[in-house]
Design goal:
The chain is of the alpha+beta class and about 100 residues long. It is built from 3 helices and 5 strands; from the N terminus they run E-E-H-H-H-E-E-E. It has 2 domains: about 5-50, no CATH class; about 60-100, no CATH class.
Length: about 100
């Protein structure tokens, strides 16, 4: 694993009794994707309360926020919906959000 991780660093200021987030930069996207997929079923992650989330730039975050209502509605209707990179998908089809509402 040492060869697969380029950089790891903590985020924010050190405060007593507070766990800080970390950012991990992987050398290869394939390794990142494998770890991302395994996180949900990992006993270590469950026992230690480890969670993963993406660190998005404002340019990627705003379009996702615009598409989120459509994704959540689809999920409530028991459809498969989610994000891959800056794109939103419902049932395998790319969707677009109204970005003017969030800018």
């Amino acid at each position: 694993m040492n060869e697969e991780v380029d950089v790891v660093h903590r985020v924010g200021l050190k405060v007593d009794n507070r766990i800080r987030q970390i950012i991990i930069l992987f050398v290869r996207r394939v390794v990142r994707d494998v770890i991302w997929r395994r996180r949900k079923t990992s006993p270590v992650c469950k026992e230690e309360g480890i969670r993963f989330s993406e660190d998005l730039t404002p340019e990627d975050w705003k379009p996702r926020q615009a598409m989120l209502p459509k994704i959540e509605k689809a999920r409530k209707e028991r459809k498969v919906g989610g994000f891959r990179g800056p794109f939103g998908f419902i049932e395998g089809r790319c969707i677009m959000g109204d970005i003017s509402a969030v800018v």
